[in-house]
Amino acid sequence: MQLVIVESPAKAKTIEKYLGRDYRVLASYGHIRDLPPKDGSVDPDNGFAMEWETYGDKAKQLKAIADEAKKADRLILATDPDREGEAISWHVQEVLKKRKALPKEVERVTFNAITKGAVTEAMAKPRQLDEDLIDAYKARRALDYLVGFTLSPVLWRKLPGAKSAGRVQSVALRLIVDREREIETFRAQEYWSIFADMEQDGTQFQARLVRWKGDKIDRLTIGKAGDAEAAKAAVETGRFTVASVETKPLTRNPPPPFTTSTLQQEAARKLGFSASHTMRIAQNLYEDGAITYMRTDGVQMDGSAISAARAAIANRYDGSYVPDKPRQYQTKAKNAQEAHEAIRPTDFGRDHAGSGDHGRLYELIWKRALASQMASARLERTTVELEDGTGQTALRATGQVVLFPGYLALYEEGRDDADDEESRRLPRLSQGDAPLKKAVHAEQHFTQPPPRFSEASLVKRLEELGIGRPSTYASILQVLKDREYVRVEKNRFIPEESGRLLTAFLERFFERYVSYDFTAGLEEELDDVSGGRAQWQAVLDAFWRDFKPKTAQVMEQKPSDITAALDEFLAPFLFPPKADGSDPRLCPNCGHGQLGLRGGRFGAFVACSNYPECKYTRRFAQGGGEEGANDNGELALGQDPATGAEVFRKTGRFGPYVQLGDGKDAKRASIPKDIGEIDLDWALRLLSLPRTIGPHPETGAPITASIGRYGPYLAHEGKYARLASTAEVFETGMNAAVAKLADAARGGGRPQRGASREPLRLLGPHPRTEAEIKLMEGRFGPYVTDGTTNATIPKTVAPEALTLEEAAQLLDARAAAGPAKKKGRGGAKKAAAKKRA
């Protein structure tokens, strides 16, 4: 019997069907062991020796693998064809060796697609484990461990509120923060554009002003309304004729088939998928045998696949859409061992696979791969110049015509910021023609700051800088979201207060290790290890020799010194120069204290030097702009008409809130995030909660609406129903309330025991089992579940701050502990007393 090890059970089932009775195929369910999260797992003083620990939830599966291995004549390690797949195979081999269950014959096979042909061919070409790839895995894992376990304690002691920092995640976070700084320092510049609506032979087109008073007009040339009106008048009074028509042929070649990063970018642009969701769906398609392996930086396709693609194109279109020669693409990857075949369908004759998101992603992959072998598109770009009689004023119209669509008939690559001015259609124009001028417009514009990063543009930038590797991008972005260093609004990344502060700390005290060049250079060294061009311990030693003393040096500094250094480093953001030239640090509350950065138990904030006499505070993230200058941390909103007590807007450890009156008996209410600018009316509404809607028509008991820990809700006799927004708390009437409560009782709101429940938050796939982890509200408090195992969240951990990795560790620990022992009604029985002799 021959034992084959793969990662997933779906893959195992399919491959066992292909191989026949002599083969037993088992899944490892991803990685089976890792460095335990404790000090000493990597020993730099002993050649970076590593102490590995088996995952608790893999014990049962490893026993099954070991039992089968003892009976097997041959072990075939058939995990994924990349560095992580090589590592999983190595771990399986090492564990079986320890358990003395390793067969005499051990071989490694890899296949790029789960089809019968690909699997059969791979089985005929076995090899040994690639020691260089395993060394590269060890180096990356040790490096990430050493950075995390050395730097995180520094953060916990010197930067209150910080959770942890990772080697690559911190650099990705810096990109997001740097972009936010660019946006904040950007100063909009006014400019005007002048264009005319023209018509020729019934076809309308637009022409913009490019010359005025004999001078060339650039985008920012006309900067005032007065000049714009004068230029508009010149166009209105001028009689324009065509001075020149320039036509240029244009050829557009198709893009190569997808790599991991380009697939993530295009799926984000066209389908709105996150990087992690794209990879999850692609993994399913790969395991179903629909596409080739989805973690790759290669752009080439196998020769047989190219032939199949060309045949499919000829079948779908006429022969003109098939180029004379097959297209060959060259990878830009620096590490040839990790540059596998591009992502493509396993069968080009299959234009659909799966449904829903699976079907949409497959179609995108199929179209891109097929288009990569199609003929180029032929276009004609036309530029028309129109001049008035004096030649001092000129207009220009541009457009393009598709002469032959080629690959564009099937697929066009998406762009983050499309400008389609040149794709407009133009009528046929000749020199001397005088098109009809129908209207002239002068439009005011303002220059725009650079856009915040989307997932697609951030992945693209990381790849351009050589930071991280395609297979890691999804997890990098997920970690930033899980740790709440960033938030995503309208598919764009915005740094949170904690993310900005962490980046400032790392830039000030560990500048080298979050620099783009250093991180990219380290990635190249790790790639050299993969390619056998560098020794992994030497790479680690060079890094550790500088990094360890630096962390020790920062750890010795007093927290007050750290805060003072950050205050100076962040001064341009916290205290920018004022337009009137006054002191930006002058306290707006007392008028003579100096503002400065302070460190608190729950993070950084700005406070007055005259504390406690002056209690002015400002949130760190608020910066020093006009908004921050007017916020004294305690804004009076007005008086309550009923009591005459003052109503304030304040900021506390859990965010902004409103308060009625003073002292211990003052009533307070948090300000929900979906409320815009808070005013007295909104404050009084929030302070009036809970709101009684009225008696239930069947029970007579009151129905109330309020806002709780997890958002707005309805309540009636201990049963609850969720509301969609804060506005619904005040707008929901009796009929709607009764209907929502009835729907909740059927499973739509807070469920009865045994009913399905809505998760409080989706944390993402388990890093090792890939099962979806959910944060749930239970009878005895919040817990996490992966559908198989439930784990209670310790009281010391805030559920809203729980990260994916922390949740996974809780589930692993719970699974390792085994099922809870049931107790009888009387509790555990005491041991029977021994009878006296």
TrEMBL record:
Any Gene Ontology CC annotation: chromosome
Keyword flag ATP-binding: no
Positions of the Topo IA-type catalytic domain: 130-551
Biological processes per GO annotation: DNA topological change
Catalytic reaction list: ATP-independent breakage of single-stranded DNA, followed by passage and rejoining
EC number(s) stated in the UniProt entry for this protein: 5.6.2.1
Source species, domain of life: Bacteria
Basic residues bias spans: 820-837
Domain Toprim: 1-114
Record region (Disordered): 335-354, 815-837
One annotated GO molecular function: zinc ion binding
Record keyword Isomerase present: yes
Annotated segments matching region Interaction with DNA: 164-169
Active site residues according to the UniProt entry: Y293 (o-(5'-phospho-dna)-tyrosine intermediate)
Sites marked Interaction with DNA: H31, R140, R141, D144, W156, R295, R483
Family: Belongs to the type IA topoisomerase family.
Quaternary state and interactors: Monomer.
UniProt function note: Releases the supercoiling and torsional tension of DNA, which is introduced during the DNA replication and transcription, by transiently cleaving and rejoining one strand of the DNA duplex. Introduces a single-strand break via transesterification at a target site in duplex DNA. The scissile phosphodiester is attacked by the catalytic tyrosine of the enzyme, resulting in the formation of a DNA-(5'-phosphotyrosyl)-enzyme intermediate and the expulsion of a 3'-OH DNA strand. The free DNA strand then undergoes passage around the unbroken strand, thus removing DNA supercoils.
Name the UniProt record assigns to this protein: DNA topoisomerase 1
